[in-house]
Each structure stands twice: as structure tokens, then as C-alpha cells.
Design a protein that fits this description.
heterodimer, A: mainly beta, B: mainly alpha, two-stranded antiparallel sheet, elongated
Amino acid sequence: MSYIGVPPVSGDFVVLDAITTSATASYTLQRNSGNFVPESANHMLVSLNGSIQKPNSSFTVSGSTITFSEALTSSDSIDFILVLGNVNAVGVATTVSDSAITKAKTNFVSSGTGYTGTGLDIKGNGSANGRLGLLCSAGSHGVAIESPDHSAGQSYTMKLPDNQIAADKFLKVKSISGSGNTAIGQLEFASAGGTYEKLLSGSASSSVNHDFQNFMDTSKYRMYMALFTDVVSAGTNERLDLQFIADTSVQNGSHYWGSVLGQRSSNTQYTNGYESETQGKGGIGLVMNSANAGNYLFNIINSPNQQDFGNNVFGTNWGYNSSYGDYAFANFTIGYNHSANNTGIRIVESGNNATTFDYEIYGILK
Amino acid sequence: MVDYNSVYTLEGVTRTKITGEEKTQLEAKRKAVADNSANKKLELIKEFRLEKLKETDWYSNSDVTMPDNIKNFRKKMRDIPQDFDSSKYDELLNRDSNGNLTHSIWSKP
């Protein structure tokens, strides 16, 4: 006759080592020659002289010692002792004590790819989506990661970023394998998307030449916006000028053409045109001291495929000029009449004095 | 005077002292700027002079008789380069706290 009822598919079923009887009631239980402690007498099937013994009546157990209700003799035979273990401990979860299963007792192994091969599933209940909770140290607060709604029909996989984590970065889908709603996306920590991508920023220490190198990438960016604020100079009524840099080589040949057109607060125009100079002029001269710092915006186009004036700048500067006694602004253009694979810019004050400023350089994505 | 260059890349910032030949070239550039200082000041003076002359140009219209004081003022403007040497340029360019030129020659009658 087959087994009646739900089969106990889980548990620890152990036949203990054979025991040789003698003129005593108590014997040590052993498994593979090591002492063995059963859960209780009720977990044991003990056969003595061909008869099954009643637990806690014909025998009791304490620790690894079984004690029969009366002393045996050497002619008695303990046919077998079968310990059923704690068969419910794993097979029926409702009897598992809270927090009883520790991480060392788990082994969630994933296989294959995608969500069907996951080592652990957090299921929904038919109305609520599956959620994985992450609680605070006290367990009184928590956050959750939740599955998309069933109606979204999504079964994608997000692979965590494969690059180093860094401040000010965003999660971006770097690449996908597969397609549709089962695609697998590789994430990365990336700079913010959108039109403007911040490349360089900070506060410049006092220096004569400020070389911003190798930030130009014509495969990614259409143009660049360089903003210099709180500009303070050791000189007076000078301006910030610009030279291009190819790799690390400053382009200081007589290749810069340009024009400046500004307006002063005394309602007077300022103009300045030039050709074949060694650096591009960044507008009108400004006093640029701590009380009246200067400000500059350079919009830079780097088109290496063009020959003449392929690299050029349109910009604005504004601030106070003490020679004129005016607050002023000037728009300016700088054309670089030369062919070079420029990758950066040098910012230098027109009188070659040391300057400090805050800087931000953005690449404008194609 | 210690001068520095700074290099900014996507990897970080380095700042180094300017020494040797580069320092020599920098000093030469600064000297050239200083030597040209008087010329730059004179350019500014001429710029201001032109502005003042423009303000009184309308007296030259055929239907207007230019007063003598305006004639004298315009003559003084034109004579600035010969009447003032470079040692006087700073006086000519001096401004008060409101940004106004303080030298009496700029005072239009």
C-alpha cells in the first residue's frame, strides 16, 4: 500500500548506529560513531526484539541517551532506531520560527539570463506588485523596489553599472542585448544627459596661463560653452584672451582675426577689430578686481574639417572699466585662420598678469 | 614674483611654477606691455577727445555760428598731444568716484 496523506518530502531521516545490548536500560545514541541528539522521543521509531516501542512509555530520551523502561539483557536485540528528524522544520514554513532562517542557510542560485533564471523571486499577490523592501537599521522605516504593473508587460533586466561610481553621475542605459520587453540593459554611471554636458568646472588658482586641455571631442559635441565668472586679475582694465591648443601645443601663431563691439553705460560704443594677431581678444578691457570682478562667456566651435576659420568663437564679456568709468559689455568674435586639430583652449589675460576665476565648460551634444 | 601655469583636464588640475625660458619670455611680454603703457593711455585720451569733439560737432553746421568758447574748447582738445606729455597722461585720465574725468580740460563750456 502506498503512502497515505501528504508525503513528508523534507526532513532528516537517520538510521542510528547499531547498539549491542547488555544488562542496563540506558544506551548512548550514535550516528557514524558520533553522539546523536534526537529532537524528542516522538521523533524516533525504536524496534526491540521485533516490536515497535512506544515513545515516552517504553523508552525516553535525554540528550543522546535512550533509556528503556526496564533494563535489557544481552539476549535482547535492538533491531533499529530510526530518527525522523524535525520533518516539519523546512517542509512547512508556518512552523519555522521568525528569523530562524539566516543568510548562511540560503543559497539562491541564478541561471541562464533574464528574469526567468533569477535565483530569488519576490512575487505579487494578484493585486499588489512584487516589492523588495530595504529597511532601516531599526526596522521602523524602509524603502522598496517594485515591479512595473502587470499591464506594462515588461520583463526586462537591468544590469547594475559596470563602471566606477562617482559623484554627480546619473544612471544611464549604456547598452542593451536582446530586444523588446525582455531586453537586458547594461547600466553605467554617466554624466547628465540632455543638450549640455558639463566637462570641466571648479575654481582656478592664481595663474598666468590657464590651459584647458583635451576636453574637445568632435565625435560627441557640436560646440562648447566656456563660462568664466568672478574673474580677478592682477592687472587693471585688461581682458581675458583665448588661444587654441592642439593636444598640448598652444597655437600662438599670428592666426587670430576678430572683432569686438560693445556698449558702455555712458551710452558710448566700444569697437575693436584686428587681424593676424597671436591671440583672440575676449571683448572689452575690465578692471577685474575683487570689488568688480569680470565675467566671460565663450561659445566655441571646433570644426577641424574646415580649413580657414573652422575654429571660431562668439562670446560676451561684461563688467566695470575704470578707464572709461563705465559698466560695459562687449560681444566679440574670434576666428582662427589656420588648420589644426584643436583639442582645448588657453585663457590668458591680455597683460599677461595672473588671474583667478570660477570656470565651467560644457559640451553641447550633437 | 612667482608665477604659475595651470592645466585642466578631465582627469584633474595641475599647477606648476613658471621657470627658465618660459619665465624669461613672460617677463619680456610684461615689459612690452609696460613699455606700451603710454601709447595705450594716449589712445584712450584720443578716444575721449573724439567723444568730446563729437559732442560739439553740431556747432559746425552751416546754419550755426560756433561761439568762441567752443572754438577754444575744440582747439584745446586737438592740441592735447602737443600740450601734454606722457607724464601728464594719468592726470588727464583720472576719474572721480562717480567715474567722471576730473581734469579741467575735459570741462565743456
